[in-house]
Structures are given as C-alpha cells and as structure tokens.
Design brief:
The complex is a heterodimer of chains A (about 180) and B (about 400).
Chain A: H1 2-20, E1 24-37, E2 44-58, E3 61-76, E4 79-94, E5 102-121, E6 124-129, E7 133-145, E8 150-161, E9 168-178
Antiparallel strand pairs in A: 1-2, 1-9, 2-3, 3-4, 4-5, 5-6, 5-7, 7-8, 8-9
Chain B: H1 2-20, E1 34-40, E2 48-54, E3 68-72, E4 76-77, E5 80-81, E6 90-92, E7 98-100, H2 103-125, E8 135-141, E9 149-152, E10 157-161, H3 181-203, E11 212-213, H4 222-230, H5 234-258, H6 287-296, H7 307-325, H8 334-349, H9 352-356, H10 369-375, H11 383-392
Parallel strand pairs in B: 3-8, 8-10
Antiparallel strand pairs in B: 1-2, 4-5, 6-7, 9-10, 9-11
Helix pairs in contact in B: 2-3, 3-5, 4-5, 5-7, 5-8, 7-11
The chains are: A mainly beta (about 180), B alpha+beta (about 400).
Chain lengths: ~180, ~400
C-alpha cells in the first residue's frame, strides 16, 4: 500500500502542476477500436467503445486522463463469457506543431485496467470484479485544429499490460475542446 | 472559476486511481497453487463451475509447466506444435482466483488442469518415465473434424479440434472435449499404448501408421496402413484387433481418471449408451464376427474409421470396469482402487509385445485374448471378477488359468 500512496502523490503533483503552469483544461470524447491479443499470441479480438478524457494543454505539451470501457460477449453453449473491460490511463503528449493547424504527436501513458468477467456454464454463472493491473502505453497520432478551441485527433496506440506481458493495439478518433 | 476546475480535475482523477488500489493483493500464488474457475467434475459428479487449483504452473499467463505445454490454434509439425505456448487472457478477482476472459483461454486452462492430474496419476502409478514430459497438447486446432481429440504418435502430441461454433446462450449442451477429463485421459493413454505396444508391434512389421483418434480419423491411419500392407491377411486382422484393444483400454483409462462410466457421453451425447462402460458385460465379438466386420468394412464413421473398433473396445473396457468394481479390497478409496488396477494393466502391457509379436503373423487372435495378456499368471482374481471375465470370454469358450479353481 505504501507504493500506492507514492503513486497517488506523484499523480497529484503532476495534475496540480497544470494549475501552476496556467495550462488550458481540455475535455475530449472519442471512439476507439481495441485489438486484444488472443491466447495464441497471434490473432486479435476487436472491441469498439467510446472514450472520455480530461486534462491540460500548455505549449507543446498535453496531459490527460482517459477512460475507456469495452464490452464483449462470447457464447457457445454450454459456455458463455461476458466481459466488461475498463481502462484508465494518464497520457502525456508532445505536439511539435510543425504546421499551423495540424501536427503529428507522440504519446506515452501509464494507467490501469480491470475486467469484470461473467462466466456461464450451463445454468451456472459466476461474476466478480477483477483486480486492477498496471499497463504502459505508447501512441502516435495527428491533431487537427478545426476551430479556435476545437481539435480532431486520429491516434494509434499500443498497450502493454504488465502482468500479462503482451502487446495489445488500438486506434481511435477523438474531438478535444480546450476551455 | 478555472482554479476550481483544476482542483476538481486533480482531486477527481487522483481519487479514481486511489480507488483502483492497484497492486494490493498478491492472491495465493505464494502457496505455489494457482486457482482457476473451470467447469469441473470429481468422481463422476455433474460438471459444474469450480475453483480448480493448479500446482505445476509457474505463471498463469503462460501455459507451460511440468505437466503440459498447451497451444491454441496452432499447427502440428513433426516435432510438435508450431509457435509459442498459449498466453491466456485472465481476470484476477479479489481472492486470487483467475477467471478466463475468452473461450479459448478457458479451454486451454482446462486442458492444462487435466494434464496436471494425469501427470500426477502417472507419477503415482510409477509410469511417468514412459513418456516425454511436459506433454504437448493443442486446443482449437484446425482439423478435418471439429470437437474431436486425437493422439498423433509421430509428433507425440494430443490434438483437440476446434469447437463447432453455435453462438448460442443455452443452459445445456455437451461438455467440450477440452474440458472432458475422461476423453483427455483416453487420448493420453494412447501415448502409453503406442510406446509400450503399438510401436514395438509396428517395428516388427512394415507399416506406416501415424495417427490415432477418439472416434474419427481422416488421414493416413493405422488401419489404412494395414489395408495397404496386409490386405485381408491375418496381420491385417490382428492389427485391427489391436486397435480395438487400444480403444478399449483407453476408455478404461478415461474411466480410471474420471471415475465416470459415461465420460464419453458427456461430450458425444449421441454415443452415450453405446460407449458407456456401465453396460453389462457381454461376450466379446468372436473371431468370425470380427473377420466379417473387417471384410465388409461395416459401420464406418464420417471419416472412414470403423465404429466397430470403438464399440468392440468399449466391450473390453466394460469388462475391465466390472473387474475393478468387483474388487473387494477394503480401506481403499474408489480412486485408489481404480488406479491399482490401472497400474497392474499397464505393467502387463509392457510385456505384451513379447506375447504378441510371435503370434500376430501366425493366427487370428481372439478378441478376448486381451484378458490373457492382462491377467494370466499375474493377478489373483476373486470369484466375482472371474465371473465377469468368464462372461466376456464366453464366445471363445476359453478361460483364464488364474480363474480355474476359483469358487464362487
């Protein structure tokens, strides 16, 4: 638990830094397609879901917390699995602003994910909230300034869950508004 | 206003991560056992969701341990499966229990759990050195027939075909092959039989047999090889008979492991009665009947493998089950009782090539000759056991020497 307190304080410092840096607050909504690596380590299972983010923007830098939740179900009687996947990641971005209205960017993230799986077998079922686990992420994207404070984004990402030790991929689009 | 928003964002986000409480629980892996939620059956009970502990798997996210290497949706080469071992998707809940997060992961973990039990059973019986460990097992493999398990002697692997997808959320349905411990034990036994009996026999004659399955086969099989090499000769007859014995003993092994006389019917529901080991012992097929079946190629399944091989095998297995059930030794659990007889039978099979090699080319063996191989001059059988064997041997009119003089 001591480790967690340190992590939480680190996050507090990062987020409050935005305040002292007089950054702009940003709100984002997006739509993501997540490709999770299958158990044979070669194929991928795709799920799609919206995402929501809040954060800061200052100069070439952005930092935001993003939440995604994906739902999937697979039935093949007498087996069934219903799964709710949640992900909360703190992303940091560097946007070089090569051009006036659009720019590529790179992103690094750290966060957590958890599942709630409902396992079904014949007339039995079992469901319990899974424990959160850490993940690292990296991404590349493009940002396009639509209006003054409105931005559109297209991004591709990879995520590395630390306990599972395999790379998953996703891509998404988002609209970001700077307050 | 902005300051308020910043503070709300900062503390809101912080509280969300604090709520997640990452890394607080290490589960019970320190005890050396990892627990999974699986459909499971103990001693012929109905399959239901249970917590199943696995002790030989160092990492729940890599299905490779002392007992088995499990592969998903892979391919078989001469040396085994191609690619990396299965990396299941899992959800770990608060008490350290792992719940598979996709169907293939569920099947793969079930296979590992059963092969761990088979590994431990082989160790108890002192026969683990017969085979190479960890065993290689593939699930969700693209084969010509779905929902089937096969042993591939060339690569020394067990292959479970891809499940037929019905996409239905039903509260009923057969147990998938990968979750049926009896069927996995059946296939596991084929590896023992191949090593102890079939390979020595095949080495004694020209043959190219390569594969063996639970109830279907479509490629070059042992029987096809016999067709090619022996036509309808005595050798051909005897090798078909050995295949039936192989199937019967494998059924018996499935029963020993699962304690369930109907283990095949849990998955192959349409074969529940005909493949039941609980059927009353009846006289085994005679030499004449078997010759006729072989000559007419009767009752082949959709892949060309004769169904009679399995059915004649089940006759042998029913008799062996009856012998176990008639064991009157006290102060011994049902599992230990079954395993005691399994150990006896496997030790006798190790001697089978010495008995069979001189005979297979000379005369058509009687189907009930297997009882002579397994029991003659070796075990003491009680009156009830002798009675059951006598029923099975009735068609040939022969009897076991060990039973002569045993009074009911």
């Amino acid at each position: 638990m001591t480790k967690n307190v340190g992590q939480v304080w680190s996050l507090i410092i990062l987020l409050l830094w935005g305040h002292f840096a007089s950054a702009q607050v940003t709100l984002a909504i997006g739509y993501n397609s997540r490709f999770e690596r299958a158990s044979n380590d070669q194929e991928f299972a795709e799920t799609r879901a919206p995402s929501f983010g809040v954060g800061y923007r200052w100069n070439h830098w952005q930092m935001h917390v993003e939440y995604q939740t994906h739902y999937s179900e697979a039935y093949n009687s007498p087996l069934g699995l219903e799964r709710r996947y949640e992900e909360l990641v703190l992303w940091g971005r560097y946007v070089p602003q090569f051009f006036e209205r659009w720019s590529p960017y790179i992103a690094l993230g750290v966060g957590a994910y958890r599942d709630r799986v409902k396992a079904l077998f014949r007339d039995q079922s079992f469901s319990e909230q899974g424990q959160p686990e850490w993940l690292w992420g990296g991404g590349l994207g493009f940002e396009w300034q639509i209006f003054n404070d409105w931005y559109a984004e297209l991004e591709t990402r990879m995520a590395y869950p630390l306990v599972e030790r395999k790379l998953d991929f996703s891509w998404g689009i988002a609209i970001r508004y700077s307050l | 206003m902005k300051t308020i928003i910043y503070k709300v964002l900062a503390w809101g986000s912080t509280l969300m991560l604090a709520f997640l409480g990452i890394g607080c629980d290490s589960g019970n892996e320190s005890s050396g056992k990892i627990r999974f939620l699986l459909p499971w059956s103990e001693e012929a009970s109905t399959y239901n969701l249970q917590e199943v502990a696995i002790s030989t798997l160092p990492d729940p996210y890599r299905l490779k341990g002392k007992a088995a290497e499990v592969y998903v949706n892979s391919y078989v080469s001469r040396h085994g499966f191609v690619g990396d071992v299965a990396k299941p998707n899992l959800s770990k809940v608060k008490n350290g229990l792992y719940i598979p997060a996709d169907p293939a992961s569920w099947l793969a973990i079930s296979v590992y759990a059963h092969f761990e039990r088979l590994y431990l059973m082989d160790r108890r019986l002192g026969i683990e050195d017969n085979l190479r460990w960890p065993r290689q097992v593939g699930v969700e493999i693209a084969t010509n027939v779905a929902d089937k398990a096969s042993y591939y002697p060339g690569a020394d692997v067990v292959v479970v075909g891809r499940r037929s997808k019905n996409g239905k959320k039903l509260k009923k349905g057969p147990v998938p092959v990968s979750m049926n411990g009896g069927i996995l034990a059946h296939e596991h036994f084929h590896a023992h039989f191949y090593k102890l009996v079939k390979k020595p026999l095949m080495d004694s004659i020209p043959s190219t047999g390569q594969r063996h399955s639970t109830e279907s086969d479509s490629q070059s099989s042992f029987t096809d090889a016999c067709d090619r090499y022996f036509g309808s000769s005595i050798l051909r007859y005897n090798f078909e008979l050995v295949e039936a014995w192989n199937e019967g003993l494998a059924d018996f092994w499935g029963y020993v492991y699962s304690g369930n006389s109907y283990f095949i019917g849990e998955t192959l529901t349409h074969r529940r009665q005909v493949r039941s080991l609980a059927n009353a012992v009846k006289p085994l097929t005679s030499i004449e009947q078997l010759s006729s079946l072989i000559a007419h190629g009767a009752g082949r399944d959709i892949c060309g493998r004769p169904l009679w091989i399995y059915e004649r095998g089940t006759e042998v297995a029913s008799a062996l089950r009856a012998v176990v059930e008639a064991d009157t030794e006290k102060h011994i659990s049902k599992t230990a009782q079954r395993e005691k007889w399994a150990g006896h039978i496997l030790s006798r099979l190790a001697l089978a090539p010495q008995i069979l090699v001189p005979l297979v080319g000379k005369e058509k063996l009687s189907p009930d000759f297997i009882f002579s191989v397994l029991f003659e001059d070796h075990l003491e059988l009680n009156a009830e056991q002798c009675k059951e064997i006598a029923v099975a041997m009735n068609s040939s009119g022969s009897s076991l020497r060990v039973c002569r003089g045993v009074k009911p």
